[in-house]
Amino acid sequence: MMLDLKHIKKYYTVGDTTTKALDDVSLSFREKEFVSILGASGSGKTTMLNVIGGLDHYDSGDLLINGQSTKTFKESDWDAYRNNSIGFIFQDYNIITHLSIMDNVTMGMTLSGVSNEEKERKATEALERVGLKKHMNKKPAQLSGGQLQRVAIARALANDPEILLADEPTGALDTQTSHEIMDLIKELAQDRLVIMVTHNPDIAEEYSDRIIKFNDGKVLDDSEPYQSGEVNSDFQLNRTKMSFWTALKLSFTNIKTKKGRTFLTMFASSIGIIGIGIVLALSNGFQKQIDNTQAETLSQFPITISRVGLDSQAAAQNSQSNGKNNFAKGQTIRAKRSTAESAQHINKIDDDYVDYVKDIKKSAAKDIAYIYTTGFNLVRQVDGKYKPVTFSNLDESQAQDQSSSDPSSSVGVGGAVYPTDRNGKMSFLKQNYKTLAGDYPSKKTDIVLIADQHNNVNINALKNLGFDVKNNQDLKASDLIGTKVKLIANDDFYRKLPTGTFVPDKNYQQMASSDQTKTLKITGILRTKSKNSDGLLANGVAYNDRLTKEVVDQNKDSAIANAQRSSEQNVLTGQSIKSASRPDLMTYLGAASVPSTIQIYPNSFDQKDRVTNYLDKYNKDKASKDKVVYNDLAGSISSLTGGLMDAITFVLIGFAGISLVTSMIMIAIITYTSVLERTKEIGVLKALGARKKDITRVFDAETTILGVGSGVLGVIVAWLLTFPANILLEKVTDLSNVAQLNPWHAILLVIISTILTVLGGHIPARMGSKKDAAIALRSE
Ligand code: ADP
Ligand code: MG
């Protein structure tokens, strides 16, 4: 390959002094010759070598390669030219110390995409040629200066370049070694152009064919000038490209040389990941716990539709209309309904609605209770005498208040109502309760006592049934089971006075023996199966919803019910009644034909949504007053806890996120340091033909390794921390295995860590890639 320099100028301006490093240099080189460039320090020798090698670019003039101008060369052309045609040898060898000798020698070929086999063959050849066959497997640190220079020569030779540029190759070597290296270079000059810079005239004299003397950027003397003729051979350049794999390898071997620092860096930057990992593991676990408990507990609680419902939307609107939390200004007073009252919604439970509810799919809710909160007229024989009793859980004084003035004032006769399976079975009890004593009820007239998990039965319930018990008194189940209670029809129970009002009759003995009287019997004492369903039915008497229906059917045409229907007064007290309490009174007397409460028991937590969606559909496009609102205790609890968990999680992740950002900045600093440290390496890679992109890639690869490393480390540490965390939590909360790191979260965290570190390191990496190769190689 022939080179022609035509009026090349290269000026450096620093501050207001301009150095003419090359000042109108015109030279031509033969295809094969050994040229020495002699000159004092600072005369521009290195600059010329760099310009010839494409490491540095001339300001003006032209460099002709095989007669072809390089004025239009793009960066990638120069990269390819350096890689394909030029071999560089430096005074201080510039071997990449963290790579093996083999990898150093093959780097140029790696950049131009030569196959592994060919690379190895050519590198071995080159190493043999420089006399290093025996030392091939050593590490650079184990070689002497002369040997390192031989590696550098092998590296320059490996790609078989047409031009070898050597910048004071023996400058750092002793005389003996210098001669050996010079012999080698002389030999190489036989089939290529070698341009060697030296300040040693003896060496120049002894070895080279031609000596060019430099002074102040100008050619002072040329021993064998050459005038190139027409050249026609055009040349083709092979583009270079470093694969990400090569970049990774380069970074990996580099990282291996600073294990301690790398580990510390990874650890520091993994702290954010550890934080987020722990937070996620905890919230994940808590949510799972909550979901499980909810699914178990809350699914068993019914969706309740009562005559007076709570419209949560209205409640929210009301509290909103109060405005902000500030105190009001001025002295104007506003009349305002209480939030609780505004939220009250009178549900219009009519036959249509009952039919609608009856159409709920059995796969969504197996058990539905239609409760007619009607008054039960009950008497029981105690010590041979009948006396009135109730199923209430209220204590005596409250109960007396109730019966003496107006029995309907507090609707409900007490006791718990359990639903019938929609297939007519009483499976609800069997599913949630086991028998402490006696049997499950089998008829609607069978009633049961519900005890809590400690076998307690409400004392008022027992007293109201006519048992003479003291607090904490122990009872035998056999004393309770078999107890019979007579349920009296209204017509037997109430007597009409001449004034038109009705009063309860006192002739209990006679009532009890009436044809219409039903006999209720306590068949068993039941206790909840699991702690979670405790409270599903109130502790005390429980009966079937069909019993309430039967009582209503029996009483709806009773004299007292009929009288109440057509009267504006309370037929029990003779007092006028407020319109609001009229429905309660009607219900109490059995005159209402629709249930006052509907309780829907979803089959599972998931099925509950189907039920509520179905109920919501009923309200669609209905006027506000026709809407029927339901009360979903389970739902409101779960959405509350869910929201709370989310909020806490977000806050904690926010905190951990800050440390992620911190580690990102740290990685940027570390990468920048690495760029500074590896300046020489950047120069060498560029001299070998690496593109800017490739350099960026090397550092990106390094941060990728750091990112993956710190991500994996963080995830592992977070995972390990879940064990002590769980032990601690179990001690404090009784919950086991709360902290659970979701594998998907772990993967996501590694990815996040990698992306953030690469982002953090990318800017310094770009800075590194922009480094001027000529300056990089001059740096110490
Ligand atoms: P030599 O190799 O003959 O010792 P150089 O080619 O290295 O000389 O330098 C020639 C002149 O150019 C010197 O005066 C040097 O200070 C100057 N020089 C080289 N590179 C730069 C640079 N990047 N910025 C400013 N001045 C430079
Ligand atoms: Mg120099």
UniProtKB/TrEMBL annotation:
One of its GO terms (cellular component) is membrane protein complex. Residues 314-329 have a biased composition (Polar residues). SUPFAM superfamilies: P-loop containing nucleoside triphosphate hydrolases (SSF52540). The chain crosses the membrane at residues 263-282, 647-672, 701-723, 743-761. Coiled coil: none annotated. It is found in: Cell inner membrane. It comes from the Bacteria. GO terms for biological process: amino acid transport. InterPro entries: AAA+_ATPase (IPR003593), ABC3_permease_C (IPR003838), ABC_transporter-like_ATP-bd (IPR003439), ABC_transporter-like_CS (IPR017871), MacB-like_ATP-bd (IPR017911), P-loop_NTPase (IPR027417). It is a multi-pass membrane protein. Pfam families: ABC_tran (PF00005), FtsX (PF02687). Its main location: membrane. Residues 314-334, 395-418 are annotated as: Disordered. Residues 3-241 form the ABC transporter domain. Residues 397-411 have a biased composition (Low complexity). Keywords: Amino-acid transport, ATP-binding, Cell membrane, Membrane, Nucleotide-binding, Transmembrane, Transmembrane helix, Transport. One of its GO terms (molecular function) is ATP hydrolysis activity. Belongs to the ABC transporter superfamily. Macrolide exporter (TC 3.A.1.122) family. This is Peptide ABC transporter ATPase. The lineage of its organism: Bacteria, Bacillati, Bacillota, Bacilli, Lactobacillales.
